[in-house]
Design goal:
By secondary structure, this protein is of the alpha+beta class. The chain has one domain. Helix content is 27%, strand content 35%. The chain has a five-stranded antiparallel beta sheet, covered by helices on one side. The radius of gyration is 12 Å and the shape is globular.
């Protein structure tokens, strides 16, 4: 696949640090599939992955990764990048 996308933003919300890689407006649909969360668990316990279906295509890509807040922002960035690399490579 393509190179791992750059992080666009990092926001702390409730119990998660939300690491966004792609704008949600680029997608027709966004889901949090179990298979992606299972892959993310190997990197960060409790992480969730939101995937989006690109407008006009059947391609699904990682839109954002949610890492447990207790991890801290710096570590959340690194773990989110590792998760995206794992899923999209």
């Amino acid at each position: 696949m393509t190179d791992t996308p750059a992080i666009q933003s990092v926001e702390t919300e409730d119990e998660y640090i939300h690491v966004r890689f792609r704008d949600p407006d680029e997608f027709d649909a966004i889901r949090t599939p179990d298979w992606a969360a299972n892959a993310a668990q190997d990197v960060s316990d409790g992480a969730e992955v939101r995937t989006g279906k690109r407008k006009g295509t059947d391609d699904w890509e990682v839109q954002s990764v949610l890492i447990k807040k207790a991890v801290g922002e710096d570590k959340a960035r690194a773990q989110a990048e590792e998760i995206v690399e794992k899923i999209e490579s």
